[in-house]
């Protein structure tokens, strides 16, 4: 039995008796509350805590005092169970802490062991983290078992920890389905997620979180007439992983327009301010009776453009509530968006809706300084700016690291360092720089095999220039993208890579060593490297009699993980007495450029 009286099951009981007179006649015993039994040979008792009562009689019928012994035997192995905090059903986010509980009703738990798939078994002493690589969503098998204090061992039980470290797909098809002066309803296509499932969508207005919804639409209220906003959507799965940001949707809120009263007759000219757009000037030659001239901006024309044309995004309606002569002539001066290049606006045409078809009107004047277009018509109804589809609206987007003209495909930065991606967007036909456009930065995600949105580029100092500071933790490819708008076609830059260095600390070793012994040398490596690999070399030099240093090669150090960094360690023996120095080196890998530690560690060998 052990110190607590427990022994391995089955326990065998042997009874003996002695009588110095007539001699022992019989020994009897009782197990627990069972029947009295004549003892004939050693017997086994059931596992657990059992009381055995026994006594003897001699040849003349004398009966001994009754004695009771408590026998504790354990033949049952412990059982183990695992648990982990789940966020949705069986799913957890990464990393997740796994806890193993063990129980033994008899001699008690002695030790608990566990192993992840593909790893060696290790002793369990506290909750441990299970991490998944980016893009992984699935089960991680954990085998676990326990032994009790008598050596009974349970069979290995395998449970699965379900970890979702993959983002949902990027929401697509973002557009508005209805719009008014102060409200807009957005809608988009559903994202997919193969793990915990899509849980919600975050809607951003001008890069600020506006709402989190479960539906694939959102009505936004309280916007200002004539304001312009950029909307994006991010999908969240049920454990909190976020998708890449959707392609931005820029929405120009309609304005109510403006009006002016006409009190006289004959020839009348009125200036009508319209919020955001500017002043419309309407001249009517042939007013018969007073009324009101009204200008209304609309979000869409009454019909598509004529064949060979495409609209340029400005739609408006001019109306007069009074009476005009049959031969009245109306001259309208309309402000246009200064972003339209001069070469393009000079070719603009005005589409005039006559109730069942478009009438194409050539402007009488285009003022590229005041940014206005003037045209003459003989009737009032909806109008739209348009241009010939044959006009080259193609654009070119070039991007470099540091300057837009830098042709390097890749640059190396220090650990934690940054690089600036600079782009320049121009119109092909006129080589005009295009400013104030929605240019975004994307990075290549090898886990999902796609380019994903990183951020919107900000305007640079020069016309048509766009910039974004990048600070990757591993080697990453970036590019810039212009999705196109109502004036220009889409464009894409070539990709550029940023390759950060690793960071490795000076190795730490004992100040003195014996030449006949091995010692542990260790240090810190950033960023996190996979445990069990050999990402660091510790180089050795011995100081010679002349004061120079003689190299003695290197020893590979293995990595173990500690949160956001790795600890490297190696067993090193320095075989000769004297002064040695050690320096760490992290070789180049697919994610990081090589790096030396900044200093040496000096060791005396005796």
Description:
The chain is built from 1 helix and 52 strands. The chain is mainly beta. Helix content is 1%, strand content 54%. The relative contact order is 0.07. β31 and β32 form a beta hairpin. Strands 44, 45, 46, 47, 48, 49, 50, 51 and 52 form a 9-stranded mixed sheet that branches. A 6-stranded antiparallel sheet has the order 23-26-27-33-29-30, with no helix packed on it. The model has no long low-confidence stretch (mean pLDDT 91). The chain is elongated.
Q: Low-confidence parts, pLDDT < 50 over ≥5 residues?
A: none
General form: elongated
Characterize the biggest β-sheet. 9 strands, mixed
Radius of gyration: 42 Å
Could you tell me the strand content as a percent range?
over 45%
Helix segment tally: 1
Mean pLDDT: 91
Percent of residues in helices comes to: under 10%
């Amino acid at each position: 039995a052990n110190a607590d009286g427990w022994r391995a099951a089955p326990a065998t009981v042997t009874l003996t008796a002695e009588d110095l007179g007539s001699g022992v006649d019989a020994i009897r015993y009782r197990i627990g509350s069972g029947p009295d039994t004549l003892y004939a040979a050693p017997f086994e008792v059931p596992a657990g805590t059992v009381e055995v009562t026994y006594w003897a009689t001699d040849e003349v019928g004398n009966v001994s005092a009754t004695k009771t012994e408590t026998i504790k035997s354990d033949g049952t192995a412990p059982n183990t169970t695992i648990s982990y905090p789940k966020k949705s059903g069986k799913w957890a986010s990464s990393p997740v802490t796994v806890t193993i509980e063990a129980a033994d009703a008899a001699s008690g738990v002695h030790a608990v062991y566990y192993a992840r798939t593909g790893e060696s078994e290790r002793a369990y002493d506290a909750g441990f983290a299970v991490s998944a690589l980016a893009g992984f969503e699935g089960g991680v098998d954990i085998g676990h078992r326990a032994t009790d204090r008598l050596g009974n061992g349970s069979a290995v039980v395998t449970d699965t920890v379900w970890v979702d470290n993959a983002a949902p797909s990027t929401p697509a098809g973002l557009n508005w389905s209805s719009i008014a002066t102060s409200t807009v309803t957005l809608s988009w296509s559903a994202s997919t997620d193969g793990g915990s499932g899509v849980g919600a969508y975050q809607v951003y207005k001008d890069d600020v979180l506006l709402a989190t919804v479960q539906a694939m639409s959102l009505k936004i209220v309280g916007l200002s007439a004539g304001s312009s906003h950029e909307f994006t959507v991010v999908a969240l799965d049920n454990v909190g992983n976020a998708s890449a940001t959707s392609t931005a949707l820029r929405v120009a809120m309609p304005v109510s327009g403006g009006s002016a009263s006409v009190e006289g007759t004959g020839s009348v000219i009125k200036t009508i301010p319209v919020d955001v757009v500017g002043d419309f000037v309407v001249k009517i030659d042939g007013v018969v009776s007073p009324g009101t001239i009204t200008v209304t901006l609309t979000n869409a024309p009454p019909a598509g453009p004529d064949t060979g044309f495409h609209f340029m995004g400005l739609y408006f309606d001019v109306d007069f509530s009074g009476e005009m002569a049959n031969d009245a002539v109306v001259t309208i001066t309309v402000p246009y968006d200064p972003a339209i290049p001069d070469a393009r606006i000079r070719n603009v045409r005005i589409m005039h809706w006559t109730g069942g078809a478009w009438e194409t009107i050539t402007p009488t004047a285009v003022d590229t300084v005041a940014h206005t277009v003037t045209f003459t018509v003989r009737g009032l109804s909806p109008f739209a700016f348009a241009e010939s589809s044959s006009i080259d609206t193609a654009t070119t987007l070039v991007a470099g690291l540091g300057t837009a003209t830098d042709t390097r495909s890749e640059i190396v930065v220090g650990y934690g360092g940054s690089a600036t991606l600079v782009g320049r967007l121009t119109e092909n036909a006129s080589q005009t720089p295009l400013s104030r456009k929605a240019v975004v930065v994307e990075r290549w995600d090898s886990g999902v095999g796609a380019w994903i949105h990183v951020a919107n580029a900000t305007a640079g100092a020069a016309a048509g220039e766009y910039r974004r500071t990048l600070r990757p933790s591993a080697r990453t490819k970036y590019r810039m993208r212009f999705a196109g708008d109502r004036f220009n076609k889409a464009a894409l830059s070539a990709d550029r890579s940023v390759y950060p260095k690793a960071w490795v600390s000076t190795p730490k070793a004992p100040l003195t060593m014996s030449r006949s012994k091995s010692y542990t040398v260790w240090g810190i490596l950033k960023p996190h490297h996979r445990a069990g690999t050999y990402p660091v070399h510790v180089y050795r030099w011995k100081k010679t009699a002349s004061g120079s240093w003689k190299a003695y090669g290197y020893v590979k150090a293995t990595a173990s993980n500690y949160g956001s960094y790795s600890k490297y360690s190696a067993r090193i023996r320095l075989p000769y007495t004297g002064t040695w120095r050690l320096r760490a080196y992290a070789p180049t890998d697919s994610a990081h450029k090589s790096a030396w530690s900044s200093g040496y560690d000096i060791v005396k060998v005796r």
